Amino acid sequence: MKLFDRQKKQEINLYSYYDHAGIVRHLEDMARQGWQLEKAGSVFWTYRRCKPAELRYAVVYFSKASQFDPEPPAEQREFWELCKATGWELVTNRYQMQIFRNPAPDAIPIETDPVVQVENVRAAMKKGSVRGDWWLLAGSLLQLWLQFRSAYTIRDLLLSTFTLSAILIWLMLGIKAVVELIGYYRWCRKARTAAEEEGVLLSPRTRKWWQILQILGLLVIFTVDLPLLLLSPSLSPSTRMVILVSFFCYAVLLLIIYGSRQLMKKKGFSAEANMGFNILIAVIGSLVLMGGLVWTGFRIAKAPSLQGHINAETRTSPAYPAGDTEHTYTVYHDPLPLTVEDLVGETAYTDYSCCRAVEGTPLMTAYKYRQEVPYVFDIVSEEDGPELLYEIYEVKLDCLYEPVKQSFFKDKTFSVPGKFKFTVSQNWTPVDAAPWGALDAYRFIREDNTPIGNFLLCYADRFVEIRFDPWYDGAAPTEKQMALVGTVLGLSLIHI
Questions:
Q1: Do the beta carbons of residue 88 and residue 101 sit within 8 Å?
Q2: What DSSP designation does 3 have?
Q3: Which residues contact 395 (CB under 8 A, 6 or more apart)?
């Protein structure tokens, strides 16, 4: 067996399914170069080397054909025999599209009535590509709506690798469907008019550039979108492994669906049975995979070590209230760029839980830090130490800075249809930014006009939201503490 068969070659199909004229011109040109079509696939077309020759090709559409048929319908086989009797040899067929070849330069065309030709194309497209494009467009719009609806603010959108990846994929698929539908319906309208009024078959506009763009879109998904997902700073090594395994499982599922379809065709199952079984496999397989991913996600969430936390420990508190079960909680020991001790000196309390979490995309990254007393079912004691919570949002593009800033002032509405709906107001009031070394600074005000220890600090490329409560009981931090916050969180790269 030769590693490279020089008698065969493959090329990417750059023609729309209904572009019969463009396909014919290309195949006849390939014959002049010494290549005859052997098989037409969805993406790749296979050619076999031959002597350069002037061959005639014809593309005919048979709407009753289906990719699930175990064998061509009797009506289709009879049509092939009639074509063969007139010198037209069937080269290959791809669902409803059939490609014939004739060595005679003056061969009589298979179809001569332009009206019938247009209607055959319409019937084939309605059953195949057009239906698929409409379903693709509907699915894309639904997914885009769900992705945008899931984000309360632009920060939620920019921080979610999964959301941005999904938006990119579904946006590209939606654009593909729209362009395909517009191009087809424009040709169909003009072709019907030309066939009925002028008695000619209008050739579709060949759009190789569009087919090339689609191929480039697929490359973008695999070279940009997938790395975007896998290289997200918010993903632990275990989560990245889960994503890779899930991609592999979905690829296996697609192979199983394709293999079962081909096997059932070979065994002689009807098109209806084949289609139903394929849909069943797709639904069950997708549910199993999604269930497995959800289960794995919960397992990772319950295992701090799998999330990248260092020396995390699990503790059990006494039952509270009496008669209840014991409560299990996690104490973290992650490194923090700024601690309570840095701000107020050593404290009597030493049993802190220090947690670091990172999430983000190449557009924005959020670093979330918590130094807090471990949550147990005990009444807060005076012996408990002060707590510190802060988040740093790094904006990677200047054009996103202002929209992200405005997102902090946007009220958030949470709702469950038919159950409840409430709004969380974002009442920030400007304060002096100079002590923080910031461009702007804001303090949170309760609805009763009581200021609390929440501050929003705006720096050149980031925003810092820090909460000092309850350790200073509403009093403003000192200028020394403000300056330290600005130096460590606002101006340095220590947290990265």
A1: yes
A2: S
A3: 363, 364, 401, 404, 461, 462, 463
Domain ranges in the chain are: 8-110, 235-303, 331-491
User: Which structure tokens are listed for 172?
Assistant: 């590209």
For every residue of 254-266, DSSP letters joined together read HHHHHHHHHHHHH
Taking only the tens place, the pLDDT of each residue in 11-68 is 888 888 888 888 899 999 999 999 999 988 877 899 999 899 999 999 998 887 766 6
The beta-strand segments (E) located in 287-374 are: 313-317, 327-331, 353-360, 364-372
Distances in whole angstroms, Cα of residue 311 to Cα of each of 94, 198, 297, 327: 59, 80, 21, 20
CA 12, 13, 18 angle in degrees (round to 5)? Answer: 170
CA distance 236 to 307: 5
475-495 core/surface letters (b: 16 or more CB in 10 A; e: else) = ebbeeebbebbbebbbeeeeb
Please state, in angstroms and rounded to a whole number, the distance separating the CA atoms of residues 64 and 77: 12
Sheet containing strand 8-12, strands side by side? 8-12, 44-49, 35-40
Specify the pTM: 0.68
